[in-house]
């Protein structure tokens, strides 16, 4: 049992979120996201379904170490006609490092009859057996009561019997799932209230889908009448219309309803970052209108709203955007822009007088560049270089004269169709004209290779520098392949430093070169390299 | 007064929706959208704010003729220090063809004190005067009680006095607005219930914003306790996080709560079209996860889900998608089973015996390819080609021998640094070896151009084909520029058909070529082109 106002958060981004059409997590994605979920203070992190696909198997074979979160494996109850102890599927979910297991079973008689084509009593035995065996193998078993709300409406007794049997067999949590997402808040509130009254003292969870755009409201309604675990996903990722959006739920629970979610108040400011991290990982365009964390969630158009907000932000803001790590955007106000730029200067350790004309000039440059497709939000190193160049404090470490990149698909000597990439660069360094050629399995890789070959004799600092991420986004995509391309490159060195740079051009090779150039310049500048030009 | 279950719909897409950052309606947009809103059966269509900007003035000067809807002008109460009869702003909204006027006034004492800096009694007089004058000039006056919920919590008496004075002056509707969007459903329900009890017999409306992702739930809660007008926008367009989404509200009100919205049941099937029309007009990418109308709102990805849906769609669909004009999608992916593949075959019109070894072989190929970076769930055309190729029913329309793509940055004759892309292709078509060269502002664009030049003389079908979207995802990004690249290309033709193809390779140019090849092949195959090889 839990303190009355403690609500446990259960994130299923990596499991139910992976059901989203078009979404495909790599093991590296899962690891990066799980680490952030643990950092912010989520109670339970469901990593996937061991045994269901190779990605989940690899992730469960080597999950990250969590500071605080419990790692959860999802899976089904045993199959019909097998003992739970000898069921391979069940064994797969009980044999990982996850000490908590979330086991799903249907609680709608219609599903048992029509989809599973099993006897109802037989199916309840399958639930009870599976939970009982799981209870002997892991620390904590949750029962995900699939289709609970449809089941409760259709056959209340059957749905409740499923819950009671799972509880009797040792389930620590009973999670009521609105699997098809069609239940409205007033029905959720009534049914969860009745369940809580009927089996008092039981830990009840809620799992909602957004098929009527009510997943968040449904989750809040369930908590108000007694549910103490909420399942959801970052940004509401999930099959069909998605799951309950954890990013919107958390601040409402904490700031407006006074619940303790286990997340320290100061970690709320990480929500905006967490939301954008997921989109970055999946190469999705962030929803600008997202509640609390969207880039325009606190944007004010000109006129009356702006003048009121300048008098007192509470006139048009339901919370202080900084509390969730977001920021106010006042489109027409230079003051707001100036303070953003000043805040970023402070972050990178640049001392500058706020009244200096340099500040306004840089602001104009940033605005113009962002209008042309740059996004300095995610490219701190390029922003710092831009700012320092405006203040004339960044040397040119080399001067590119030209490059040429060739990608060729042809038949090789063994009759195989191969594609080769080769790049030549011509640049001036240490008073010499240097030409080098490199190859790679893609044009950008080849260009990177040629640049290093040309520069390494003059800049030993580059020896341990490597590219660790490379992202491409097409802007103004209505233009097809003629669109503007934005490339972001993340680099790292042997000291554990990481930095991100950006390049924008109609030509993807050109954009990549610009980002590579900034990446190399930033490394040399931070290491205090002596310009060899 | 209205029948107890009649809920009036008030669309403010063209007024509050126009506050969205980045949204800019033309007069033609407004006309087209208003006509559709009238056709579907919306009661009130708010066209804008006459006198506030040139677009709204032109739209109100020549609005479309409505069959059924009432046309509404929005505006503010008179200014301080002027008589209502002589206020130019008020006159502007009372002088149009709109016979209904929606007049906004603040009902939060804090706003009157801090933002307006007016006396509270003085401001109430402004509301009452303005409503009274309007009542003499138009048929129907609504009072939009701005910031009502914040106002009610802060100073209940003041907020209620504003309502009573507007009512006494002749307002036909009192619309309670959650202007800052921060109120949660349980508070909306309590407060609207109290207002309805306190001034019984009054027509109450609700106007919600989505700042906590609860605008739809808030609107439904208000209706349940007595509100009989709902204000919202198509797709939830609107400032910050948007307004209540009419597209999600309507089917819940009609199908799940039994209200009469004035929309004939058969017109519900126009909702998906209405939603996409707005996005098309504004050049926005439709939200695939939108409740009821999103392209993946009825998409099924998991193998178990698909087999159940094939037995009875109610197992995983909360409503029949056809009722709202949407459709079921069966997704093929590495999470899919045999039943997904079979269902997709049926959708593309392929007759195949489910026990045929071809089915399992294709499933194995899909799984293997997805493990290597392919993602067929977003690339229907490439999946269809893959399946048909396995069944040997897709001809080769041409055979590529080789291509070469060059991207070069150099100084041009005028001393400018430029980047050029050029591609050559060598291919066999119609028993001839063809070589062509094309250029473009990026290597993929150049390659596309060369391919078309080579093929168009032989395949006139390609004349109206164009690339409309180009997406790049780097997989296994821990490898930096050496990572695997996935390219997805969306193409369209002059018949309004759209299709998506995929290419995967360590080399981005190679991946792009593969996706281009599928795009061209799919177009020729669907059009029944005669292979000219």
From TrEMBL, chains A, B:
Q: In which pathway does it act?
A: Amino-acid biosynthesis; L-isoleucine biosynthesis; 2-oxobutanoate from pyruvate: step 1/3
* Pfam family name, one: HMGL-like
Keywords (A to Z) from UniProt? Amino-acid biosynthesis, Branched-chain amino acid biosynthesis, Isoleucine biosynthesis, Transferase
Q: Which reaction does it catalyse?
A: pyruvate + acetyl-CoA + H2O = (3R)-citramalate + CoA + H(+)
Start and end of every Pyruvate carboxyltransferase domain?
A: 7-269
Citing just one GO molecular function, the answer is:
2-isopropylmalate synthase activity
Query: What Gene Ontology terms for biological process does this UniProt record contain?
Result: isoleucine biosynthetic process; L-leucine biosynthetic process
Provide the E.C. number(s) assigned to this enzyme.
Answer: 2.3.3.21
Q: Which SUPFAM superfamilies match?
A: 2-isopropylmalate synthase LeuA, allosteric (dimerisation) domain, Aldolase
Against NCBIfam families, the record matches this protein to:
citramal_synth
Instruction: Give the similarity note.
Output: Belongs to the alpha-IPM synthase/homocitrate synthase family.
Protein name (Swiss-Prot/TrEMBL): Citramalate synthase
């Amino acid at each position: 049992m839990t303190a009355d106002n403690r609500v446990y958060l259960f994130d299923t981004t990596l499991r139910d979120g992976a059901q989203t059409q078009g979404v495909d997590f790599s093991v590296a994605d899962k690891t990066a996201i799980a680490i952030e979920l643990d950092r912010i203070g989520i109670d339970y992190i469901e990593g996937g379904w061991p045994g269901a696909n190779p990605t989940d198997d690899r992730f469960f074979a080597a999950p990250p170490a969590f500071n605080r979160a419990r790692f959860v494996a999802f899976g089904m109850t045993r199959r019909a006609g097998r003992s739970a102890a000898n069921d391979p599927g069940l064994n797969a979910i009980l044999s990982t490092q996850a000490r908590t297991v979330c086991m799903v079973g249907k609680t709608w008689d219609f599903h048992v009859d029509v989809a599973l084509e099993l006897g109802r009593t037989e199916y309840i035995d399958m639930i009870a057996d599976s939970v009982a065996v799981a209870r002997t193998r892991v620390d904590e078993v949750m029962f995900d009561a699939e289709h609970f709300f449809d089941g409760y409406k259709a056959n209340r007794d059957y749905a409740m019997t499923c819950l009671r049997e799972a509880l009797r067999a040792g389930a620590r949590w009973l999670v009521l799932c609105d699997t098809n997402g069609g239940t409205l808040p007033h029905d959720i509130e009534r049914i969860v209230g009745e369940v809580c009254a009927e089996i008092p003292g039981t830990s009840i969870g809620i799992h909602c889908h957004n098929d009527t755009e009510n997943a968040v409201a449904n989750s809040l309604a369930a908590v108000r009448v007694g549910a103490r675990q909420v399942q959801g996903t970052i940004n509401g990722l999930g099959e069909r219309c998605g799951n309950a959006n954890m990013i919107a739920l958390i601040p409402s629970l904490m700031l407006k309803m006074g619940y303790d979610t286990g997340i320290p108040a100061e970690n709320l400011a990480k929500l905006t970052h967490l939301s954008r991290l997921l989109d970055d990982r999946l190469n999705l365009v962030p929803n600008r209108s997202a509640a609390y964390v969207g880039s325009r969630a606190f944007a004010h158009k000109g006129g009356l709203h702006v003048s009121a907000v300048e008098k007192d932000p509470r006139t048009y803001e339901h919370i202080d955007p900084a509390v969730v790590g977001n920021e106010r955007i006042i489109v027409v106000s230079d003051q707001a822009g100036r303070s953003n730029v000043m805040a970023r200067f402070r972050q990178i350790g640049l001392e500058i007088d706020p009244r200096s004309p340099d500040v306004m000039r840089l602001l104009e440059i940033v605005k113009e560049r962002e209008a042309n497709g740059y996004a300095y939000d995610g490219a701190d190193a390029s922003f710092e270089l831009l700012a320092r160049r405006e203040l004339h404090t960044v040397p040119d470490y080399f001067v590119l004269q030209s490059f040429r990149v060739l990608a060729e698909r042809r038949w090789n000597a063994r009759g195989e169709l191969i594609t080769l990439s080769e790049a030549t660069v011509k640049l001036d360094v240490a008073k010499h004209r240097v030409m080098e050629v490199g190859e790679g399995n893609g044009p950008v890789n080849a260009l990177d290779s040629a640049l290093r070959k040309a520069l390494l004799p003059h800049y030993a600092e580059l020896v341990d520098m490597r590219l660790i991420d490379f992202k491409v986004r097409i802007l103004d995509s209505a233009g097809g392949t003629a669109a503007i391309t934005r490339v972001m490159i993340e680099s790292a060195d042997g000291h554990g430093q990481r930095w991100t740079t950006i390049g924008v051009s109609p030509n993807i090779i050109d954009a990549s070169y610009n980002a590579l150039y900034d990446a190399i310049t930033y490394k040399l500048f931070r290491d205090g390299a002596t310009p060899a030009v």
